[in-house]
Amino acid sequence: MAVSRKITKKRTLPLLPLRGLTVFPYMILTFDVGREKSVKALDEAMINNQLIFLVAQKDAKEDSPDEDDIYRVGTVSRVKQLLKLPGNTIRVLVEGVSRAEVKEYLQTEPYFIAEVIERAIPEEKDRNVEYEALKRRVLSTFDDYARLNGKISPDTVASMGTIEEAGQLADIIASNMQLKIDQKQEILNEFHPDRRLEKILETLLSEIEILEVEKNISVRVRKQIDKMQREYYLREQIKAIQSELGDKDGIAGEADEYRKRIEAAKLPEEAEKKVLKELDRLLKMPSGSAEGSVIRTYLDWILDLPWNKKTEQKIDLRRAEEILEEDHYGLAKVKERILEYLAVLKLTNQLKG
Fold first, then answer.
1. What predicted TM-score, i.e. pTM, was given to this entire model?
2. Can you give the CATH number for the domain in which 102 is found?
3. DSSP string covering 149-206, please?
């Protein structure tokens, strides 16, 4: 859709690099400042109509960033309040005014001063059906995101419906999302309001997919923990009952020994499931029952098998032929097939079917 011409405005402002933080227009937030250069930039801002250019660092761990360590697009912001804290730290309350891009660094010491260019793209007064559809989809998707995220208040979600401009809606939604710095910067870099709103929709859909996966994982883990806690509780109850009955070292102790053997055997997954199922049955059996004896025999047999133990395969065709001739009279074709099979096995060293 067509939009009006760009409106550009140059400003010369003190620049304050932010660590792990991105400020959007219309955003009001508080953060602490302690680096000497940043404090001096704030002092300059209080003289310069309280305006300062806030821009994120590419690497939050960098304590003394230079121009290459700082993103080009940031937010012209107004300092609303300063509060001095112990240890030469200042708590700052700011409000984002407009996005802008660094044209040139005019000074780097004792603090940054940059010439920045604000590029505003006025929005259409008469919006078409396509825009209304996009806006509704964004609002609906943000509602889904907020429910999954669990950290955004219903009042914040409801307030989004009162915002008319695409750019403002995109910026305020972005400021309420939990995103990585580079993701937020990608949204901040987009000056065109409609494309920015489309970018927000893409980001919301992607984040919802991730949140749903996280939720499913949490549910599975919770179920597993609950199951383990129930099993532990039941085992402790059985031990307590057996202790009361004078059978302290009875079936529960026997079951613990079986568990150690199962763990040591490193059974295949299906075999381990079957063995554990039989062990659970054993725990529920009355002491001395006939069926309990059958289960013990089964468990001992399974656990005595040489799981995961291999021997080197040696095939001597001549010796095999001698044994077949000595032990079996006739059966020439059968012997021939057995020797063929052994010859192939020796060559391939594995069975194919």
1. 0.61
2. 2.30.130.40
3. H--S-HHHHHHGGG---HHHHHHHHHHTS---HHHHHHHHT---HHHHHHHHHHHHHH
